[in-house]
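Note to self: the last two entries modelled the partners one at a time, which told us nothing about the interface. This time every component goes in together.
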Amino acid sequence: GENVEQHPSTLSVQEGDSAVIKCTYSDSASNYFPWYKQELGKRPQLIIDIRSNVGEKKDQRIAVTLNKTAKHFSLHITETQPEDSAVYFCAAGDTGTASKLTFGTGTRLQVTL
Amino acid sequence: NAGVTQTPKFQVLKTGQSMTLQCAQDMNHNSMYWYRQDPGMGLRLIYYSASEGTTDKGEVPNGYNVSRLNKREFSLRLESAAPSQTSVYFCASIGETVNTGELFFGEGSRLTVL
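The predicted structure of the combined assembly is written out below.
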């Protein structure tokens, strides 16, 4: 099965700085790579995703890059703000009829003033 | 449009007791999932249902059973709760259109087994 590793487990940045979270996956058949944000006590919510036919995707201050050859993908947050403080999960899998995603163990991002 | 609703939000059980977590979605999604979330472990799939009438094991199915009652509802049952099942449980559904595989999560159910 798929195995997803995520680093770092905790990340502290100052407001305005950039944050980068990295994930690697093992199954070359995976073709879908979403990122979920979970604020304290809340449910995970999708913030951005990328498919295997695309190398990079950007949405305002967040971007995701994918390197299929190396089997790794990364989340980049620029100009961080206090409301970016949360736990971020990467995942890898497919979007077939019985979609299954394997999640990373999460990165707790703290944005300090 | 409530999305994914799960009950109860909190539950305390004694070892050996049983309980059922209920989940319902009103988005007409085919696939539904149960995850558990433990500190440092991420979200781990317990069971999923690709469509009404089908269920399959995920990564950590031991100690759980599920029922896909209809297209809207997917329940998770603990027959004999153990302290190792103390966790936050999330139900989710997925729309699986051509352009998105987004998982929609419920608010979570925090279960403590003493």
